[in-house]
Amino acid sequence: MGTNLIKAPVFFGVPMQTLFRNYKCTTTATNRKSLFSSQLILLQSRKRWGIMYMMATITGVVISTSGFFGSFGVLGVNPFQDSILRNLATVPATFLIITGMYVLNDLVDADLDSSSGKKRPIPSGQITKSQAWFFVIWTNAVGVLLVLFIFSPLSLILASSIVAIGILYSVPKVCLKDRFILKTVSIAAASMLCLLLGGSYVFEFPSSGFPTNSYGYNNTYNNFDTSNHSMLLCIYSALMSGSIIFVTSLLNDLGDVEGDKNFGRKTIPVVIGKSNTIRLNLTIASSMIAISWSLFYFYPNISWVAPIFVSIIASLVIVQMIKVSRNLADRALIRMQHKKSLIWHISLQSALVICALVFWM
C-alpha cells in the first residue's frame, strides 16, 4: 500500500510554511523595533523634566562631597573613589525615576491632555498605553536598582519616597494632582528629595544622629563642623530648589485652568484664581531672596555667591510673573513661559553648585 504525500501549499513558488516562518520572524523583529522606538519617543517627550530634577541631584552630590577636596592628600582620602563616583549613581537614578513618573502622569492624563490640545505621544495615539506602562516600570526599577548599589539605607529611603510621591500623584482615588495645595507641594517635595538624595552621603554622620555608612566616611573624615556646613547647604539648596519648582508648577497650572475645571481638579489657580496665583508666585520668589540674604547675614561663611545669584534668578521670575499677569487669558503665552522656565532651574542649580565649591575654597 503506497504512502500519499501531502504537499504544502505553494505561493509564487515559495512554500507557505516558509512564508509563515519568515512572517513570524519579521513580525517579531518589527515588534521589537516598535517597542524600542516607543521607549525612545517617551524618553524624548519627558527628558527635559528628568534633566531638571537630575540637576538638583547633581547639586546635592557636589555639596555633600565638596568638603573632601581639602582633605585630598592630607588624610589619604581619594574623594572621587570614596564618595563622588559612588554618589554619581543617584544622578541617572533620579533621571529615570522622574522621567518614568512624568510618563505615568501622561498615561492617567491622556484624556485631559487630548481635550486641552496637548500633542503628547500617548493622547495623540503615537504610543500605546501598554508601551507607556512598560516604560514606567523599567525606568523606576532601574532607578531604584542604581540606588541599591550605593548600599546606603538613607539613599534607598529617599529614592523610594520619590517613587511613592510619583505614584500617589497619579494613582486613582489618592491622586494628589487633583487635590488642592497637595499637588504643588508634592511636586516641590520631589525636587527637594532629589537634591537630598544626591547629598544623602553627608547626612550619614553618627554625630548628627544618622547611621554611619559602610564606606569609611566617618573614619576618614569625621569632622563635625564640615558635616554641619554641608548639611546646612543641602537643606538651604533643597528649599530653594523646591521653591522654584513650586513657582513653575503653578505657572503650568495657570495654562490648564479651563481643562482642570472640566475634570474637577482643585489646583491652586482653580481655587484662588489666576491673579492670586501670580501674587503667590511673586511672594515665593521674594521669599527666596529674603531667605538667602538672611542666611548670609547670620551665617556669612555660606558665601556671597548664593544670595547674589538666587536674587538674580528670583528677580527674573518676578519679571516674568508680571508679564504673565498682563496676559492671563493667553493660554499659549503662559505655556510658552512655562517651557522657558527650565532655564530658571538650570541657573539656580548651577548657582548652588558654585556656592558649594566657593564655600570650600
Describe the structure.
It is a single chain. The chain has 15 helices and 2 strands. It has 361 residues and is an all-alpha fold. The chain has one domain (36-359). Helix 1 packs across helix 5, helix 3 runs antiparallel to helix 5 and helix 9 runs antiparallel to helix 14 (331-340). It is globular and about 75 Å long. Residues 1-6, 70-77 and 205-224 have low confidence and may be disordered.
Tally of helical runs: 15
| Number of E strands | 2
- Give the N-to-C terminal Cα separation: 99 Å
- Cα shape: globular
The largest sheet has its strands arranged as 1-2
Helix content: over 70%
Tell me the β content.
under 5%
What is the average of the pLDDT values? 78
Q: How would you describe the oligomerization state of the chains in this entry?
A: single chain
Major beta sheet summary: 2 strands, antiparallel
Structural class: mainly alpha
Radius of gyration: 25 Å
Count of structural domains: 1
Unreliable segments of 5+ consecutive residues: 1-6, 70-77, 205-224
Order of helix and strand elements from N to C terminus: EEHHHHHHHHHHHHHHH
What does this entry show, briefly?
The protein has helices spanning 16-65, 79-87, 90-108, 110-115, 129-148, 153-170, 182-198, 217-220, 224-254, 257-262, 268-272, 274-298, 305-325, 331-340, 342-359, and strands at residues 10-11, 14-15. The protein is mostly helical and 361 residues long.
